[in-house]
Write a structure and sequence with these properties.
By secondary structure, the protein is of the alpha+beta class. Helices cover about 45% and strands about 15% of the residues. The chain has a 3-stranded antiparallel sheet. The model has no long low-confidence stretch (mean pLDDT about 90). This is Transcriptional regulator, AlpA family.
Amino acid sequence: MSEKPVLAERPRMFEDAPLTIAEFCERYRISKDIYYRLRAKGETPRETRLSPRRAVILIASLREWERRKLEEDRKL
């Protein structure tokens, strides 16, 4: 019996597509509640608003956030 992957894989054509908040949370295995707490402290990737009710995280913002997190981790 094969195991299911923990994270759903995105088709290759969507690798550079923006992530929804839910997709970001799934990818990093955090709850939306934790995400919004981190966002209030400025500790999440920059969001891009598509409409007043819809925000996404561009891959460039995600990569920049990951780079900053790695730099912070190295300083510890």
